[in-house]
Amino acid sequence: MAHNWTPESWRGDRFTAKHIPHYEDQAALAGAEQTLAGYPPLVFAGEARALKAELGRAAAGEAFLLQGGDCAESFAEFSPNNIRDTFRVILQMAAVLTFASKMPVVKVGRMAGQFAKPRSAPTETQGDITAPSYFGDIINGIEFGVESRANDPERMIRAYSQSAATLNLLRAFAGGGYANLRQVHRWTLDFMGRSPWAEQYQSIADRIGEALDFMEACGIDTENEPALKAASFYTSHEALLLPYEQALTRQDSLTGEWFDCSAHMLWIGDRTRFIDSAHVEFLRGVNNPIGVKCGPSLAPDDLLAMLDTLNPGREAGRITLISRYGHEKVEAGLPPLVRAVAREGHPVVWSCDPMHGNVVKSDSGYKTRPFERILSEVKGFFAVHRAEGTHAGGIHVEMTGQDVTECTGGAVAITDEGLADRYHTHCDPRLNAAQSLELAFTLAEMLNLELTERQRDAA
Questions:
Q1: Is 218 known to sit in a ligand binding site?
Q2: How many angstroms separate the CA atoms of 90 and 375, rounded?
Q3: What CATH class is the domain 9-118+152-458?
């Protein structure tokens, strides 16, 4: 257990709490925290430990992490269909990546808790009116106005309820036959039949089908085999709103260890990642797997100090380092961090976030992410790890199963002018279902190349 730590130690004067909202009604805040503290945990310690074990395999080069979902979940877009569609695309991506890499794919959703968002400015001005910035539905409303943008602690209760309902549905989908591998492959074939890039990746899809046919010919019932009809699926979000996270922190009755039971995995963002950060203090004491965003502002020595703070016991699967550089900076900026971590022997999962460093303002005024830049950063990430002899262990994307038009490009050829058609995000632009699958097939080619090189080196 972490030395000299309690679930509320982050509130101490020696820690700096950035991007945590101020609530005018402190009594209402205390009431919401007390209510949440009395609610059941959303996830359980054993589930978080299982995820840590799977991530430990990824840290050892024996698995690959697929982490994806909404930039920011919202109350308005909450529906079973949206949850189902995003879950389905993640399953499709995972099936393609598993086949190409010949490794297990650890499936983690940015779901059931990804509500809070840090913002660069605390206020926003429109005309003569200045109101607080929108910090996510768990904190305030997206509609512009002084009243709707007021920080409301009761929103934490609603976020908990939505997260509980989302988790309930995800567990049913993952274990109730919806995740059957044969069905997932049928979805992919159906989708490819309507996609302009189908021919380019047809051979991969054909080989997946042949593998399933072979298993059935050997007497394996692909519709009912437990390993093929269910999927392990975990949840994650940025641990930003610490009053909410603390209220859902529980002590495991079996081990005495503390877990943040709002999600299986939490991560710390680029803006709250510093040594005297209240967020770092909170996360060092919970035993969930932890992600750390790594970008151009992070020096190797600072990263090593962060690793010593968050994972002094060097437990495999505890830390995932999520690089976010931008397509032009990744090949120059990432190697010093990779070398420092390798030199010190920290067992981490290296994952690539190709989204946050590639945001541009389109001519039409929309914030977007060109698909070509996203692919370029992923390719640069793989190139760095190939050169350093380390494992490119994961991908972290903001995506949705909906047919939105938020990121330009891809084979679906979303143009600047077309962004307005279905631009629905509450925060940053997301890959749609077609772009997510196209990314998965491109990743599959890279993973297959990595597999070929490993086999050649072992020969």
A1: no
A2: 18
A3: alpha beta
